[in-house]
Design a protein that fits this description.
Order of helices and strands: HH
Number of strands: 0
Strand content: under 5%
Number of helices: 2
Radius of gyration: 32 Å
Shape: flat
Largest sheet: none
Distance between the termini: 59 Å
Helix content: 40-55%
């Protein structure tokens, strides 16, 4: 059922997209380029680059990684905690029925 819904959604998207045509695509691209060249967007981009640039400078220099030995057994020095196991669902307890053999 999911595959049918997915196929239907793709078909509808294709039909609507092809109806919009090349003109609408060009309009969207032109709007995106205008937004990219807007001074406010350019200023935010520069601030983000500066913030990321200063952040990476404070990180320690990466050391050379140790060679990987495909034949060596993988050993972990830090144990990885396991999530708690879920208890299996059981039917609700029913009251015990006692039968009186003398009755």
């Amino acid at each position: 059922m999911r595959v049918i819904k997915l196929a239907a959604g793709l078909a509808v998207g294709y039909v609507l997209g092809s109806r919009a045509g090349r003109e609408k695509y060009e309009q969207i691209v032109a709007t995106a380029r205008k937004a990219q060249d807007h001074p406010a967007v350019t200023q935010v981009q520069q601030k983000a680059k500066a913030a990321l640039g200063t952040r990476t400078e404070t990180l320690p220099a990466p050391s050379e990684p140790a060679p990987i030995d495909a034949n060596a057994a993988e050993e972990s020095t830090t144990p990885v905690p396991r999530p708690p196991r879920r208890q299996p669902r059981t039917a609700p307890a029913t009251p015990a029925v006692t039968v009186d053999p003398l009755a």
